Inverse folding.
């Protein structure tokens, strides 16, 4: 099992954000994001946009749900699709709507994930 740390998460984000299609999506810089490892048994990961916080963006990954590198990177990619929509006026970044699914398909095709799992 991977011993997950916020440093690993930040470096993983830094790697993925320069890959297509993320490199075209006006993603937050790694420095603008707080990366948290928690142990939530129910949620693999979350993305939160909060412009009142010290960091505008928070990505949390659960070590209780992501034990393998493969799972962590897939969960990170999922949360990054949410993060790619941070500047939407209607808080669409929370949704798993048509736009989310379209972006998930682009990520899956480019990076080799199962789009239905992403
Ligand atoms: Zn989601």
């Amino acid at each position: 099992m991977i011993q997950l740390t916020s440093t690993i998460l930040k470096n993983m984000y830094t790697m993925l954000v320069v890959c297509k299609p993320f490199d075209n999506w006006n993603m937050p810089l790694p420095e603008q994001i707080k990366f948290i490892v928690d142990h939530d048994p129910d949620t693999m990961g979350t993305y939160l946009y909060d412009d009142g916080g010290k960091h505008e963006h928070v990505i949390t990954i659960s070590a209780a749900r992501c034990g393998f590198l493969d799972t962590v990177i897939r969960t990170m990619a999922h949360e990054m699709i949410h993060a790619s929509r941070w500047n939407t006026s209607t808080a669409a970044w929370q949704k798993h709507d048509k736009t989310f699914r379209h972006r998930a398909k682009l990520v899956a095709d480019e990076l080799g994930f199962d789009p239905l799992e992403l």
Q: What stands out?
A: The pocket of zinc ion is lined by residues 78, 82, 96 (CB under 6 Å). The chain has one domain: 6-111.
